[in-house]
């Protein structure tokens, strides 16, 4: 099926159902079990990744301050992502159509080949592998440096968990980045200084959160009267939580680096990696009930 790009791909396994939209940023449109939404359902008429159930973060995660950075002594200006000025946001994967390399009843493989442009100067190839079984949905996102030069890289996934009025989030992470008014990290502090989810916090009692957590154990749980959902991301120690007040969703995003990692001090472990030509970076996330 290489090169084909159907508008929708439907996956089914047991009571689980998922719908994927390759052309609309390689997004998941819905994920449910027994008719119960696990992730929020994308409106039928929408093709915006910001309305989706989950979208990919590649070749970097979250914001780059003013779209500018220096890598290996060369200055780059990516420009701002429209709607998120003055910063660049989430890379190019969520704003690009993906090709379909494989699609069957319970799995799909999407690919994206980026030739390099102002939005991201380096060539790369990315893939998303979706596997649905009776335990839930596993998504693997991978980026390979297809350029002749070393390239900075990061990956992540941005799921929107369906959230009722009584929803609680449980997630163990020791520290959190406090941010400035434009959501760029400014200080790493104990999680208790913002929102400590380790004991299970009612989302309606929590403050507004759009922050990156460090020292995460790779697991998160959203619970409510209608049932729950569990996210696991083995070996991933960073998660970005987006929990707007009074929203019908909460996001727990497994990511390989913190926001604005390209502008972090050299001594700071911000998580961004430099991939040699041909080298790859991968992240795996599973969502179950």
Topology:
Layout: E1 9-13, E2 16-21, E3 27-33, E4 36-39, E5 54-57, E6 63-64, E7 68-71, E8 74-77, E9 88-89, E10 99-103, E11 107-114, E12 124-133, E13 136-145, E14 151-153, E15 156-162, E16 168-179, E17 185-190, E18 201-202, E19 209-224, E20 227-232, E21 238-243, E22 249-255, E23 273-275, E24 280-288
Antiparallel strand pairs: 1-2, 2-3, 3-4, 5-15, 6-9, 7-8, 10-11, 11-12, 12-13, 13-24, 14-23, 15-22, 16-17, 16-18, 16-19, 19-20, 19-21, 20-24, 21-22
CATH C-level label: Mainly Beta
As a whole number of angstroms, the C-alpha radius of gyration is: 18 Å
The number of distinct helices, counting runs of at least 4 residues, comes to 0
Helix content: under 10%
Order of helix and strand elements from N to C terminus: EEEEEEEEEEEEEEEEEEEEEEEE
- Ranges where pLDDT stays below 50 over 5 or more residues in a row are none
Number of separate structural domains? 1
Work out the number of β strands.
24
CATH architecture label name: Distorted Sandwich
Q: What is the CA–CA distance across the termini? A: 31 Å
Mean pLDDT: 96
Shape: globular
Mind describing the biggest β-sheet?
A: 14 strands, antiparallel
State which percent range the strand residues make up: over 45%
CATH topology: Beta-galactosidase, Chain A, domain 5
Class computed from helices, strands and strand pairing: mainly beta
Question: Could you characterize the architecture of this molecule?
Answer:
The protein is mainly beta and 289 residues long. It has a single domain (9-288), classed as Distorted Sandwich (Beta-galactosidase, Chain A, domain 5), CATH 2.70.98. 0% of the residues lie in helices and 51% in strands. It contains no helices and 24 strands. It has strands at 9-13, 16-21, 27-33, 36-39, 54-57, 63-64, 68-71, 74-77, 88-89, 99-103, 107-114, 124-133, 136-145, 151-153, 156-162, 168-179, 185-190, 201-202, 209-224, 227-232, 238-243, 249-255, 273-275, 280-288. The strands form five sheets. Strands 5, 10, 11, 12, 13, 15, 16, 17, 18, 19, 20, 21, 22 and 24 form a 14-stranded antiparallel sheet that branches. It has a four-stranded antiparallel sheet with strand order 1-2-3-4, with no helix packed on it. The mean pLDDT is 96.
């Amino acid at each position: 099926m290489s090169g084909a790009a159907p508008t929708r791909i439907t996956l089914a396994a047991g009571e689980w159902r998922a719908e994927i939209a390759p052309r609309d940023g390689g997004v998941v449109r819905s994920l449910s079990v027994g008719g119960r939404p696990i992730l929020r359902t994308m409106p039928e008429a929408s093709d915006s990744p910001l309305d989706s159930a989950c979208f990919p973060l590649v070749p970097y995660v979250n914001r780059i301050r003013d779209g500018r950075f220096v890598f290996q002594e060369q200055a780059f200006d990516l420009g701002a992502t429209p709607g998120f000025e003055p910063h660049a946001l989430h890379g190019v994967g969520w704003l690009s159509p993906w090709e379909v390399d494989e699609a069957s009843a319970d799995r799909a493989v999407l690919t994206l080949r980026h030739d390099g442009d102002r939005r991201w100067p380096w060539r790369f190839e990315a893939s998303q592998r979706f596997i649905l079984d009776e335990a839930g949905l596993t998504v693997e996102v991978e980026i390979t440096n297809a350029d002749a030069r070393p390239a900075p890289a990061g990956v992540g996934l941005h799921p929107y968990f369906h959230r009722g009025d009584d929803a609680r989030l449980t997630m163990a992470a020791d520290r959190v980045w406090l941010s400035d008014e434009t959501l760029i990290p400014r200080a790493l502090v104990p999680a208790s200084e913002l929102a400590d989810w380790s004991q299970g916090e009612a989302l309606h009692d929590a403050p507004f959160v759009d922050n990156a957590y460090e020292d995460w154990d790779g697991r998160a749980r959203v619970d409510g009267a209608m049932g729950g959902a569990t996210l696991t991301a083995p070996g991933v120690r960073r998660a970005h939580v987006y929990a707007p007040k009074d929203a019908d969703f909460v996001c727990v995003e497994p990511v390989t680096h913190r926001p604005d990692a390209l502008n972090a001090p050299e001594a700071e472990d911000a998580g961004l990696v430099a991939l040699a030509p041909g080298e790859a970076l991968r992240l795996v996330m599973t969502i179950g009930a």
